[in-house]
Amino acid sequence: MTDQLTTDPAKPAQRMRAGSMTIPLIPWVVAAILLCLMPYIFTANSAITIMNQMAITIIFALAYNMLLGQGGMLSFGHAVYAGVGGFACMHIMNMGDFFSGLPLPFLPIFGGLMGMGLATIVASFSTRNAGVVFAMISLGVGELIAACSVIIVVFFGGEEGISGDRTYGLPFFGVEFLQQVEVYYLIAFWLLLSAALMYLYSRTPLGRMANAVRDNPERAEFLGYSARWVRFYSFVASGFFAGVAGALFAINYEILTEENLNTTQSGAILLVTFLGGVGFFFGPILGAIVFTLVQTVLSLQTELWGFYLGIIFVATVMFFPGGLAGLIMMHVPALRMGKLGRLTVPYLKTLLPAAIGMMGAAALVEMTFHVRHAATGDHEMTLFWTTFDSHSLTPWLVAIAVTAAGFAITRATAPAMLDAWNDANSADGNVK
Amino acid sequence: MTAALELDGLKKSFGKTEIIRGVDLAIASGERHAIIGPNGAGKSTLFNLITGRFPQTEGAIRLHGLDLAGKAPFEINRMGLSRSFQITNIFPKMTVFENVRCSLLWSMGYRYNFWSMVGRSRALTEGADEILEQINLTARRDLPAGVLSYAEQRALEIGITIAGGADVIMLDEPTAGMSHSETDYIVELIRIVTEGKTLIMVEHDMGVVFGLADQISVLVYGEIIATGAPEEVRANARVQEAYLGAALEDH
After folding, report:
1. Sign of the CA dihedral B190, B110, B119, B73?
2. What is the per-residue pLDDT for A336?
């Protein structure tokens, strides 16, 4: 025991690590270059639309994670701050005189301020606790403001929502934002700026104390910090960036409706953030990318995309509470020991059959759906590039066989994968 | 000279049960004062009253002559009183270094600052490293605090408690659950890091109390039955009857 407590003073290396908190620049530079190049790689208009949606979701998810991941506050009504920010920007777009003197790239500042203003009000009475009380207040406020959308028609525009035209703004160095790609660069700029600011925020005294309050509010209080005020500031900052996301939505789609601030939207952002992983800064970014892809690409393939998304979410919560980011970061120790390669073959042996099994299961789901819901007489369906008759027996037998075989192989090879995992994560020489 | 900490007719009831039944105590600045007593005597309750964890029913608590009534824990901390907990209370997911750095933030004047980078401040880094050196945890600097051994976590908690520069340090059973060698180690640590400060501790281990404290108060059923230097308390008949007799036989 005592030998553990002694320190070797002859280790200057330990003193030098003081600088380990310096901000790593490389990921940011890579991200910036990638953002600039994306429209040249994916040139289609639909691709740019998806990328815009993705970038907006990323900002929103990062803002949400300031609450959930950094501050430990579970909000069920965060879409409200983005939505209200967006509505405010819609109204600014419709203010002819003012908007014609305002370059469009500056508009998100107003959305942010609006989101921040609303967050200040709500945070002032909801941040005393971080637990159930906070979650319930957030849900209540979310419902309240969503209900206001049909009551305060002047601001929310009732059921049709509010629409506007972004091109009426003051041209920004000649750019009028008629083209989708011009909007892309505007959003990309705000994405980079917001992400950088949110990252830097987490490195400030207040950002660090947000973590401290999340982990142990009582201890933080006995260190001189009011847990309530720390939560308050996190909430306000999060409200600002949520408002920025809402403003970008307004710029991109030129219409906002009740859908932008209802609880479905609030639930979606919780899902996105959790899917990506709340424990790491980049988690929500991954979550937003995957979610947007599933939402846009998968929804073109199947009507049941929400069903699959739900399964992915439940599986994430149950088996990988760290989300996608946690899943990736799990492999860092093995990578550091140079043993990541040992996992490749066991992974292939287990995960490939698992994927095939899941595709089989998905086929069964799709076929059931087709039999139950297709128009009468329509027996033909196409699945995995194969067209067949959903009422004949053969495809069912094939799908069942594929599913069973896939999962059986997965089950048989899983122990070997676990052994490989343990092997890759234990230092060499440690015989089990 | 005003006492560092003064309790004046302090009472606390939970419902009809009176736990603290009128405590008067003055602890001079720079004194090492131990509060001992049998289980259920109200030691931890007394601690929690002083540090604002819950409000007293009657009486007054004064820190450097200032009344603490109605003050939240964070306000009391800012007035120069810092405490540790009986059950280890640290930030388990943060690194050891960050635990200490967080406890330096307020006293270094950062308050609710959101425009400076904590990693850029040499004063913060050096201050935190200095504390780590004092509590001998430099080698554990970058590990999550949750993976430290129990004794190391207790040492870290003491580090966090003293880091903010408070001049009144309250330790709630700092050696609870430790082996003999660990206890000796922590006692020595406490002696060093509380040099020149007022130390108030609740303790069960007689060896710790008699070795470390200048003054001892014995709390029995919510009342202080004796206060004095260790030898006087040891010789006091009421104390022997109430507590020490049984405890000393065990040792």
Report:
1. positive
2. 83
pLDDT for A273 equals: 94
pLDDT at B251 over 70: no
Which residues, 6+ apart, have CB-to-CB distance to A254 below 8 Å? Answer: A93, A163, A164, A165, A166
| Mean pLDDT value of segment B127-154 | 92
* A268 vs A181: CA distance, rounded Å: 26
Residues 169-188 in B contacting A (C-alpha not used; CB under 8 Å): 179, 181-182, 185
Encoded tokens for A359: 């595709």
Tell me A175's DSSP state: B
| Cβ-contact B215, B32 below 8 angstroms | yes
Residue B211 pLDDT class (50, 70, 90 cuts):
confident
Question: How many domains, chain A?
Answer: 2
Instruction: Give the pLDDT confidence score for residue B239 in this predicted structure.
Output: 82
Rounded to whole angstroms, the Cα distance separating A325 from A273 reads 10
Contact by Cβ (8 Å): B83, B161:
yes
- Phi-psi category of residue A337: left, alpha or beta, with phi > 0 → left and psi -120 to 50 → alpha: alpha
Residues A337 and A414 in one domain: yes
Do residues B219 and B24 lie in contact, with contact meaning Cβ atoms separated by under 8 Å? no
Q: A238 with A93, same domain?
A: yes
- Give A19 or B212, the one with higher predicted confidence: B212
Mutate to test the interface with A, among B78, B87, B91 (most CBs of A within 10 A): B91
Angle between helices A263-276 and A79-94 (to 10 degrees): 120
CA–CA min distance B113, chain A (Å):
6
Element (H, E) at A381: strand A380-383
Domain B1-76+202-251 top-level CATH class: alpha beta
Domain extent for A352: 332-424
Lowest-pLDDT range, A8-17, A90-99, A263-272, B39-48?
A8-17
HSE on the CB side for A305, CA within 13 Å?
14
Say if residue A320's pLDDT is above 80.
Answer: yes
Q: Across the interface, which of A14, A226, A233 has its CB nearest the CB of B114?
A: A233
Model pTM score: 0.88
Q: Is the pLDDT of residue B237 over 90?
A: no
User: What letter represents residue B18's amino acid?
Assistant: E
Which of B117, B129, B180 should we substitute to test contact with A (largest number of A Cβ atoms within 10 Å)?
B117
Closest CA to B137 of A13, A8, A12, A17: A8
Residues 102 through 141 of chain B touching chain A, CB cutoff 8 Å: 102-103, 105-107, 110-119, 122, 125-126, 129, 133, 136-139, 141
**pLDDT at res. A3:** 38
Tokens encoding A69: 């991941």
Assess whether pLDDT exceeds 60 at residue A4. no
> How high is the ipTM of this complex?
0.89
Q: Are residues A213 and A126 in the same domain?
A: yes
Would you say residue A430 has pLDDT above 70?
Answer: no
Of B77, B98, B182, the CB nearest to A223: B77
H or E stretch at B169: strand B168-172
Q: Does any domain span residue A376?
A: yes
- B143 CB neighbours in chain A (<8 A) are none
Is A33 part of a structural domain of the chain?
yes
Cross-strand bridge partners of residue B18: B13
Residue A17 is predicted with a pLDDT of 41
Average pLDDT over residues B60-71: 92
The answer on A50 and A131 residing in a single domain is yes
Pair A282, A341 in one domain: no
Residue B245 above 70 pLDDT? no
- For B85, the token pair is 């907990």
Is residue A344 domain-shared with residue A282, that is, in the same domain?
no
Query: Mean pLDDT throughout A56-75?
Result: 95
One domain for residues A71 and A214: yes
Q: Are residues A343 and A277 in the same domain?
A: no
